[in-house]
Amino acid sequence: MAATPNLTLSPNRVTPAVDTRKRGRLQKPDGPPARRPRRAKKKDPTAFTSELGIQGWAGLDSVLLAALALEAPVLLVGAHGTAKTLVAERFATALNQRFRHYNASLLNYDDLVGIPVPDDNGGLNYLGAAGAVWDAEFVFLDEINRCRPDLQNKLFPLVHECRIAGEDLGELRHRWAAINPPGLLGDADSHYLGVEELDEALIDRFWFIVPVPNWNEIGRDERIALVRSGAEPNTQSDADVAPDHLIEQTAAALEVIDAASGDRIADYVVTLVDELARSGVLLSPRRARLLLRAICAVHAARIVLNGEDIDLVKSAEIALVHALPSRATSTPPVYAQVLAAHRQAWELTDLEQGALQRELLEEPDAVRRVWLAAQRGGDDQLLARLITAAFAKSPSTADQYAIAVVFARAFADRDLTPAAWSPICELAQTVLVPRDEEQRVCQGTELGVVREIRAYIAQTECDDLDRAFMNGVNGDHFANVADWRTVVQRYRDYRTLFGVGL
Questions:
Q1: DSSP notation for 256-276
Q2: What's residue 122's pLDDT?
């Protein structure tokens, strides 16, 4: 069976995502849709970084949360002593991830991978580096613009592809780096020796380029808190504001935003890139593609942190100003020109967050989102995206078979995209197309589950579509779930919700 698409994206690869939230029983289609209680606005909407003991970074909360939710590379730009390393360390600790800190100005390639030693099969093993990157989950490359050019080139795949020495780093999630600003820091007497311009191609691999606040840019209360507390983290954080919880919420919300408004945001990005070019700010096609996801993620982060009455145009502005590669150079863009291009592009594309998107954001269940979009007159493109997301978030392969059957019947007359029809047709035909098939069943749990299902069919009132589903799904798929009866019940609930009969 081919792998189904997954909308939970890391910057460079598709990663598995499992929706672990508790699923309630679905309502019948003639009843009102179940509504999640509106989440109250948090009393302190800037508690993301301050909960980790970081003072003065509140204005960057949505950008940093978006980056963590996307697992996107981040480049921090700031003077020495502005907590760049501290922020990375605190996030890695809060997320309980293996952290590697490398001073790029002193880094040798062997420090990353170890010493290469040929093995008996003609390959290489890497030995001897206790701090090697192989099992890292969070990597921080400090002073990357003091790194030798040849080593910078070797860091490309680490930042961009989570690879090193031609090997995948399967555990690596977050790649952050930091630089001191190249050139002058505001006056002719303040500069850093040995700091060079980063390669533009390397800068372009970072999704977010984040200038960090210095002493003069934080409020007096934050300065006092920083000096008195020593920036100690809050170890008693409420579960609702724990970083991992906020990241999960943001990752879920951004997919809804992408599905509901992705096409319109794409129109804005295309117009924006052209408007910026007229001001002398040139963006690569890669940057344009990343910017769409960055806007969705920042908007999702702002919703999670501040509540649902969030302006999408402001989210787009925040994402834009923190995603411009030239902000890491000695000639950063003029903010007024960037803002003017943003406003012009926004007016030309007339983006607004619609009522349907708001309803979809309030619905936590991926399958119910599909039903809700269909009930509210969502177009085929929106349905296709939500269907693809529903497959990606299914808790098991057996559940994917269940929704494939339901979607195949419910949307037979809709013009969905190939990306949506592919998993539907591939999985649903196993259940809906009659065939003679001989299955080999392994002795043990799988055989026991098959026998239980046969007995269940014989003793329970089932229609032909129920029996087809239970007989058509291989026993090993049911054996790999905690309770196959729960999957069958969800399948029946989906049929009821979408009005799928014989």
A1: HHHHHHHHHHHHHHHHHHHHH
A2: 67
Q: Which domains does the chain have, with CATH numbers?
A: 73-206 (3.40.50.300), 241-356 (no CATH), 366-498 (no CATH)
φ, ψ dihedrals at 430, nearest 5°? -60, -30
pLDDT in tens, 46-68: 478 888 888 889 999 999 999 99
**Residue 468: predicted pLDDT:** 83
The answer, yes or no, to whether residue 17 has pLDDT greater than 50, is: no
Write out the two tokens for 464.
């032909």
CB proximity list for 22: less than 8 A, separation 6 or greater: none
Structure tokens that stand for 150 in this block: 């040849």
**CA separation for the pair 409, 345 (Å, rounded):** 41
Half-sphere exposure of 486 (CA within 13 A, CB side): 11
93 neighbors 114 (Cβ within 8 angstroms): no
Are the beta carbons of 42 and 429 closer than 8 angstroms?
no
**Counts of helices then strands in the chain (DSSP H, E):** 20, 9
Q: Which amino acid is at 76?
A: L
Q: How far apart, in whole angstroms, are the C-alpha atoms of residue 202 and residue 149?
A: 11
Q: What pTM value is reported for the model? A: 0.75
Averaged over 426-433, what is the pLDDT?
87
pLDDT interval class at 307 (50, 70, 90): confident
Long-range Cβ contacts of 476-479 (<8 Å, 24+ apart)? 476/442, 476/446, 477/396, 477/397, 477/398, 477/401, 478/398, 478/449, 478/450, 478/453, 479/445, 479/446, 479/448, 479/449
In which band, very low, low, confident or very high, does the pLDDT at 26 lie, cut at 50, 70 and 90?
Answer: very low
Residues across the chain: 502
pLDDT value at residue 414:
93
Helix crossing, 285-306 with 243-278: angle to 10°? Answer: 140
